[in-house]
């Protein structure tokens, strides 16, 4: 019998502890599939953040290190500079990267650190219980913006993929989403491209992934997919913002 | 051993670190430590070194954590304000069991403060410094030669116990130039410890995390960590006795001020006073064993702060009332005569 679908062998025999309808599980699986397809299990060092993916080391068979909140790009700088031959994948959420660790990600991009950054944007703090993130949308209700986020008071959502694309050290920046089969396929393509660029010894690549958070948003999983489409994508347009290999 | 040279403290320490196999330096410029990053930057191209000027000390400390996690000897050098910023990562490295080395060239605080010599970071360095229950081994050289000798030892201790190690220097030791004998260059292992993250090639995967998994797991983890610190307390105390056998008054001092106090011992002896000195070469673990069988002696603790190590001295002696303290603040270092006169004032009333 032909196997058409199986659990990626880069994953441990563990179930994901993410909430139902959460995008992290899909994104974790895509990374594992690419590691399988490329045969990079023994090369990979995953750098996990503080946030909902904090226990992702329990899912992967790769070497893993969990960073301090926001510091993954600095920690990964030490790792990649120590072992340039390895595939170093930095995985961060929006609270971790855009709030606590804005300095670390910007400066890693400025230095052009030669690792891949997978940025999961769900416009909210998931693990701490649904507080506002810098990526939270205007008017969005969270536990710390109970009357809706106000641009005058909290500021406008931050478009990371565009921001990072403006930094010379970044060679590739794309925004994708995991709210439909088509978009999931695009996400896999973007992550694959990022990992390939790294293994070719090229500069920093950045993949922002719009991801549903039904629990944090107080929406059913299916409604969360619509929220990504109707509310997030208009603010966070999908597409490639930088590809130095094509641009030149 | 290698050759004899006339070198500045920061530069000599950096050269000794390179020869001890520390090929990676991540740092942020801050007086009085900046000659360390400068030395690594200058030496990097010809000697296969990695030097990265970090955007902040927060990042620098996380970078050495990453390099250490990947199995390489790595270090940063900083001073008070930067050392404070690094404490989050110090706590992380202690929990994650990462063998990195940090040089803190102490200058007077609090806050921005001043830039001459100080020992005001004693509490921060010896009592953990960051959040949670942990300690770091603190080495306290008192000459450029000892800075050179101790930096290699710092890496050995870090890897022996899988714990960060701090070398507490100060502005005087960092800026002073002395004749030093440099060590010869050693070859280090490609991967410094078994659990390093290097890619799970032909082995089970390694995980480095400091995230607890429930109170029971985290208490057990903490108890194990404390066992390690207890072993270090038992095995790693180091100090030097100077004319203590017949001494009635014993100066207790470390770092650059111990150099000054050495002259005070001579001066006092020339004037018929039986003065000796205990010089801690490490302040964590504090050398409490040095104070055994000294119940009849009086102790004169001298520090470049408002009185920090004196608390550990009081905990180590039988009679607390036998302990006197003298400190200078703001960047001043007392002279040998100043200390001698203080001894006369305190003990020969």
TrEMBL record, chain A:
Residues 56-209 form the Thiamine pyrophosphate enzyme TPP-binding domain. Pfam families: TPP_enzyme_C (PF02775). It comes from the Bacteria. InterPro entries: 2-oxoacid:Fd_oxidoreductase, THDP-binding, TPP_enzyme_TPP-bd. Keywords: Oxidoreductase. Coiled coil: none annotated. PANTHER family: 2-OXOGLUTARATE OXIDOREDUCTASE SUBUNIT KORB-RELATED (PTHR48084), SUBUNIT OF PYRUVATE:FLAVODOXIN OXIDOREDUCTASE (PTHR48084:SF3). This is 2-oxoglutarate oxidoreductase subunit KorB. It comes from Anaerotignum neopropionicum. The gene is korB_1.
TrEMBL record, chain B:
Its EC number is 1.2.1.58. InterPro entries: 2-oxoacid_oxidoreductase (IPR052368), PFOR_II (IPR033412), Pyrv_Fd/Flavodoxin_OxRdtase_N (IPR002880), THDP-binding (IPR029061), Transketo_C/PFOR_II (IPR009014). Residues 15-228 form the Pyruvate flavodoxin/ferredoxin oxidoreductase pyrimidine binding domain. GO terms for molecular function: phenylglyoxylate dehydrogenase (acylating) activity. Keywords: Oxidoreductase. It is an enzyme of class 1 (oxidoreductase). Residues 247-337 form the Pyruvate:ferredoxin oxidoreductase core domain. Transmembrane segments: none annotated. Gene3D superfamilies: 3.40.50.920, 3.40.50.970. PANTHER family: SUBUNIT OF PYRUVATE:FLAVODOXIN OXIDOREDUCTASE, SUBUNIT OF PYRUVATE:FLAVODOXIN OXIDOREDUCTASE-RELATED. This is NADH-dependent phenylglyoxylate dehydrogenase subunit alpha. The gene is padG_1.
């Amino acid at each position: 019998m032909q196997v058409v679908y199986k659990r990626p062998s880069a994953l441990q025999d563990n179930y994901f502890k993410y909430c139902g309808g959460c995008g992290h599980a899909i994104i974790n699986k895509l990374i594992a599939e690419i590691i399988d397809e490329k045969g990079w299990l023994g090369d990979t060092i995953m750098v996990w953040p503080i946030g909902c993916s904090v226990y992702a080391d329990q899912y992967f068979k790769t070497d893993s290190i969990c960073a301090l909140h926001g510091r993954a790009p600095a920690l990964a700088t030490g790792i990649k500079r120590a072992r340039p031959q390895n595939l170093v994948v930095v995985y961060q959420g929006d609270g971790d990267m855009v709030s606590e660790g804005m300095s670390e990600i910007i400066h890693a991009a400025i230095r052009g650190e030669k690792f891949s950054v997978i940025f999961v944007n769900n416009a909210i703090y998931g693990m701490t219980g649904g507080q506002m993130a810098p990526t939270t949308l205007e008017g969005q209700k969270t536990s710390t913006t109970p009357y809706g986020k106000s641009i005058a008071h909290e500021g406008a959502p931050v478009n990371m993929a565009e921001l990072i694309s403006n930094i010379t050290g970044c060679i590739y920046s794309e925004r994708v989403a995991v709210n439909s089969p088509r978009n999931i396929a695009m996400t896999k393509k973007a992550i694959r491209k990022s990992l390939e660029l790294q293994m070719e010894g090229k500069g920093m690549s950045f993949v922002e992934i719009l991801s549903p958070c039904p629990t944090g948003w107080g929406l059913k999983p299916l409604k969360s997919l619509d929220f990504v489409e109707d509310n997030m994508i208009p603010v966070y347009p999908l597409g490639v913002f930088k590809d130095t290999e094509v641009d030149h | 051993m290698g050759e004899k040279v006339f070198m500045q403290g920061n530069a000599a320490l950096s050269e000794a670190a390179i020869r001890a196999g520390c090929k990676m330096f991540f740092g942020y410029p801050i007086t009085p430590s900046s000659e360390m990053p400068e030395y690594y930057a200058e030496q990097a191209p010809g000697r296969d070194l990695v030097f990265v000027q970090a955007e902040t000390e927060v990042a620098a400390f996380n970078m050495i954590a990453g390099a250490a996690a990947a199995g390489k000897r790595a270090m940063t050098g900083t001073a008070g304000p930067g050392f404070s910023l690094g404490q989050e990562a110090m706590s992380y490295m202690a929990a994650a069991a990462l063998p990195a080395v940090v040089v803190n060239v102490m200058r007077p605080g609090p806050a921005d403060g001043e830039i001459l010599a100080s020992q005001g970071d004693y509490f921060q360095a010896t009592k953990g410094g960051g959040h949670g229950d942990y300690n770091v081994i603190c080495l306290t050289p008192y000459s450029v030669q000892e800075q050179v000798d101790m930096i290699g030892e710092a890496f050995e201790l870090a890897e022996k116990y899988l714990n960060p190690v701090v070398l507490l220097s100060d502005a005087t030791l960092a800026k002073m130039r002395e004749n030093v004998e440099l060590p010869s260059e050693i070859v280090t292992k490609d991967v410094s410890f078994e659990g390093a993250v290097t890619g799970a090639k032909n082995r089970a995967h390694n995980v480095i995390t400091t995230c607890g998994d429930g109170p029971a797991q985290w208490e057990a983890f903490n108890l194990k960590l404390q066992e390690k610190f207890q072993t270090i307390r038992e095995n790693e105390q180091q100090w030097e006795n100077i004319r203590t056998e017949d001494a009635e008054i014993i100066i207790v001092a470390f770092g650059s001020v111990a150099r000054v106090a050495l002259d005070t011992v001579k001066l006092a002896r020339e004037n018929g006073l039986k003065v000796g000195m205990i010089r801690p070469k490490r302040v964590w673990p504090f050398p409490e064993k040095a104070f055994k069988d000294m119940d009849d002696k009086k102790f004169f603790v001298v520090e470049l702060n408002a009185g920090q190590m004196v608390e550990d001295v009081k905990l180590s002696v039988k009679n607390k009332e036998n302990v006197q303290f003298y400190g200078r603040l703001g960047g001043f270092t007392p002279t040998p005569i100043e200390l001698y006169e203080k001894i006369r004032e305190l003990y020969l009333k």
